[in-house]
Amino acid sequence: MIEIDNIDHIGIRVADRDRAIKFYNLFGFKSVRAADNDDVIVMKNDNNVEINIIFNANNNNNNNNILMDETEKFPGFTHVAFRVESIKSTIENLNKNNIEITQGPVAFGEDGHVSVFLRDPDRNTLELRGRAEDLSELGGVEIYEPLN
């Protein structure tokens, strides 16, 4: 068995380097360094969460994410979920920055967490997940019911 302690970083492929950096800055990520030999910018937030912005995607996808927006389902990583301190504050900040919530707030089961989903400018899916809070003034919480 190989024991995994932690997630080291998440690689996110994008078409436009500067647009992606600006977007991820809104979530507290700051550029740490650029790779000398590759199309990669390393970004970290104050909690030392690391993402790698890989800026070599083609832009021929008609604004679709092949893993999430196509009818036929392909294998691959569909999204990354980040834990947030306050889901209510997160929703308010997304609204303030005109970032569309594509699903949620939604609860999956009864574990006391609520998630919102959004897309980055390249249609990569992000889940922001926090403890349940009173969201009645923001429209409440949907309870997820899987489709058969």
Distance linking N and C termini: 35 Å
Tell me the total number of β-strands.
Answer: 9
Mean pLDDT: 90
Biggest β-sheet description: 5 strands, mixed
Strand content: 25-35%
Strands of the widest sheet, in order across it, are 5-8-7-6-9
Q: What is the helix content?
A: 10-25%
Low-confidence stretches: none
Structural class: alpha/beta
> How are helices and strands ordered from N to C?
EHEEEEHEEEE
Rg from alpha-carbon coordinates:
16 Å
How large is the count of helical segments?
2
Main features:
four-stranded mixed beta sheet; 148 residues; alpha/beta; five-stranded mixed beta sheet
Question: Can you characterise this structure?
Answer:
- The chain is an alpha/beta fold and 148 residues long.
- It has helices at 17-25, 87-96; strands spanning 10-13, 30-34, 40-44, 50-54, 79-83, 101-107, 113-119, 125-131, 142-143.
Give the helices and strands, then pairings.
Elements: E1 10-13, H1 17-25, E2 30-34, E3 40-44, E4 50-54, E5 79-83, H2 87-96, E6 101-107, E7 113-119, E8 125-131, E9 142-143
How would you summarize what this structure contains?
Helices cover 13% and strands 32% of the residues. It is built from two helices and nine strands.
